[in-house]
Write a structure and sequence with these properties.
about 110 residues, four-stranded antiparallel sheet, alpha+beta, 8 strands
Length: about 110
C-alpha cells in the first residue's frame, strides 16, 4: 500500500507542476544591452536594460508570425527592432525574442 501511495503522490506532484502557471523568463544580451521577457499568469512584459518597454495581457497568438510585443533599441544613430513572439506549447507557452527579424533567444518555432 505504501508504494502505491508514493506513486500517486509523485503523479499528483507532476500534474500540479504542469497545471500551475508559473512565471517564465527569457533573457539575452544584445550589443551590451540586457533584454528580458517575463511571462506570468496575467501578462507578458518586455524589459530592456531593466526598464519595461512594452507589455500586453494577451500573450498567445494563433499565428506564429504575429508579434506580441515590439520595442525599438536605439544605439547611436542606428535603431534595432525587438519583437517578441509566443505560441501555446504542449505543456508551457513558447516564447522567442527576435531582433531585426533574427531569433536571439527563446524557443525555436
Amino acid at each position: 500500500m505504501g508504494l502505491v501511495s508514493e506513486l500517486l503522490h509523485q503523479v499528483n506532484d507532476q500534474i500540479d507542476y504542469f497545471l500551475t502557471p508559473s512565471p517564465r523568463e527569457v533573457k539575452c544580451r544584445y550589443k551590451g544591452h540586457a533584454i528580458a521577457v517575463v511571462l506570468d499568469a496575467q501578462k507578458i512584459s518586455l524589459f530592456v536594460d531593466a526598464k519595461q518597454e512594452a507589455d500586453s495581457h494577451l500573450y498567445l497568438r494563433p499565428r506564429k508570425d504575429a508579434s506580441l510585443l515590439r520595442a525599438e533599441l536605439k544605439e547611436g544613430s542606428k535603431s534595432h527592432l525587438i519583437e517578441v513572439y509566443g505560441m501555446s506549447g504542449f505543456f508551457k507557452p513558447r516564447i522567442k525574442i527576435c531582433i531585426d527579424n533574427k531569433r536571439v533567444a527563446g524557443d525555436r518555432f
